[in-house]
Design a protein that fits this description.
Largest sheet of chain A: none
Largest interface: A-B, 43 and 68 residues
Number of helices of chain B: 11
Number of domains of chain B: 1
Structural class of chain A: mainly alpha
Number of helices of chain A: 5
Distance between the termini of chain A: 167 Å
Helix content of chain B: over 70%
Oligomer: heterodimer
Shape of chain B: globular
Chain lengths: ~200, ~290
């Protein structure tokens, strides 16, 4: 395998080269040190890699994790607050809905009561108006009767007077006598008495 | 101009000659994988710096990406170690995950492992003279180097010891490891003490081997992926294709495996991290049965 890789100039040559160099020693001694060397382990390189990784670890630990954790915590807190506020808003909304439903219910009842009152009031008022109209009509009719009666009496009076005058005139002409005031009065009264009958 | 020789003369001969495994103790630390590890470190730190600058409740894209990784991983870690241990163990696990993921994916960038010095091939070779007997890449995936993977595992084990001791204490850990389990009392408890002591010894050996298994698993997967990609890249030459066809094959053949290696890189980062989380959970969990 090593020979195959080396033939095609693979990039793994350094590691394999070391393996090849130390291979014979490892085969002969079989020690752990040689086996480790076959894989290219070397203390200087190992320690430098440790230092490199430790630098990354300490820098991240000191400068990266606190702000990231803080930011994530802040965002988590805000989300939790938002959720809490959302619950409160939903509760308030539910309460408001209940209140609105109650108010609507109450308003409906009040409206029904007002409508019933209005209906009663209107009914009463209509009755009152009808009664008033009936009374007024009765009054008008009574007044009309009164006026009619007075007119009738006035016409009857005029008729009596005219009739009396006609009787007096006719009597005067028939008798050829000039009637004095006394006769006139008597004839008028007799004629009026006849008409009244 | 011989580029390799010029650089060699400029003082990097130990690095170039060894390809990262130099015998010189003074220059041996600076390997090609170490160079990539430094780049990984820079990439991670710069990205985190950019993402955490001017943080706001409504995040920008970089902050959003970082927070996504952060929250995803925190959820996974919390699911394994529990909510009590999560804040303490998350920093090391997050760092491990991000570092390994970045290193794995950085190894897939074209040029890593293929641009280098020494014996070369292909139409982009500047000088085919044998400056060195073997090819030495300028960059190598950091996680394809045992030194890096073992360093990750070693640092984790130190942090693991600190977490376990701070959670259950040394006595608690020893009780948990060597003590009788299953709520035994009386004669049976004392009769089984040797058995549990033996099991404890096996457990300690198992713990001691964790850095080895962790590091070799990661190394093996990434190294195998790297080898696979390079083999596919040279498949045309292996099969004896003409140069122009080998060049096209060098692009086409590795392509499906690049996608696979992207997944492998992510998977290995997740596996390493979750195994570490499991080790923390197992080591730092309180034995509930003892309290009942």
């Amino acid at each position: 395998m090593i020979a195959l890789l080396a033939e095609f100039n693979l990039a793994v040559v350094p590691l394999l080269a070391a393996a090849e160099v130390h291979g014979a020693a490892a085969e002969s001694s079989g020690g752990i040190g040689d086996a480790v060397a076959q894989f290219g382990f070397q203390w200087q390189s190992f320690l430098s890699q440790v230092i490199t990784f430790l630098v990354v670890y300490f820098v991240l630990n000191k400068y990266a994790f606190p702000p990231i954790m803080g930011m994530l915590e802040e965002r988590r807190r805000r989300i939790a607050d938002g959720e809490e506020n959302l619950k409160k808003i939903q509760q308030q909304l539910a309460q408001a809905d209940e209140r609105v439903a109650g108010m609507i219910d109450e308003a409906n009842k009040e409206a029904e009561r007002l409508i019933a009152d209005a209906r009663d009031s209107a009914s009463a008022q209509r009755e009152q108006r009808i009664q008033s109209a009936v009374n007024e009509a009765s009054n008008i009719i009574a007044k009309a009767h009164e006026a009619s009666k007075l007119e009738h009496e006035r016409l009857m009076g005029e008729l009596k007077r005219e009739f009396g005058r006609l009787v007096v005139d006719t009597t005067g002409k028939v008798t050829g006598k000039v009637l004095d005031e006394k006769d006139r009065k008597r004839i008028n009264e007799e004629a009026a008495g006849q008409i009244a009958l | 101009m011989n580029f390799a020789q010029t650089l060699t003369q400029s003082g990097l001969n130990a690095f170039l000659a060894s390809g990262g495994i130099a015998p010189d103790p003074l220059s041996g630390w600076f390997t090609n994988s170490m160079l990539v590890a430094l780049v990984v470190m820079a990439v991670v730190l710069v990205f985190v710096k950019l993402a955490t600058s001017n943080m706001s409740i409504i995040p920008n894209r970089k902050q959003n990406l970082l927070e996504f990784i952060f929250e995803f991983l925190y959820g996974q870690v919390e699911g394994v170690v529990g909510s009590k241990l999560a804040p303490k163990s998350f920093p090391i696990l997050f760092t491990i995950f991000v570092f390994i993921l970045t290193a794995n994916w950085m190894g897939l960038i074209p040029g890593v492992g293929t641009v280098g010095f020494g014996k070369g091939s292909g139409f982009l070779t500047i000088d085919e003279s044998d400056a060195h007997a073997e090819f030495h890449p300028l960059l190598r995936p950091a996680t394809a180097d045992l030194n890096m993977t073992f360093a990750l595992a070693a640092v984790f084990m130190i942090v693991w010891i600190w977490i376990v001791v701070s959670e259950v204490g040394v006595k608690g850990f020893l009780d948990h490891t060597f003590g009788p389990k299953g709520g035994l009392t009386g004669f049976m408890k004392w009769a089984l003490v040797p058995v549990f002591l033996f099991v404890g010894v096996i457990e300690v050996i198992s713990i001691a081997f964790r850095p080895v298994t962790l590091s070799l698993r990661l190394l093996g997967n990434i190294f195998a992926g790297e080898t696979l990609l390079h083999t596919m890249g040279h498949l045309g030459e292996i099969l004896g294709f003409p140069d122009w066809l080998s060049m096209i094959g060098g692009v086409v053949f590795p392509l499906p495996f690049y996608f696979m290696e992207i997944l492998v890189g992510l998977l290995q980062a997740v596996v390493f991290t979750l195994l570490c989380a499991v080790y923390i959970q197992v080591g730092a969990s309180h034995d509930e049965e003892e309290h009942h």
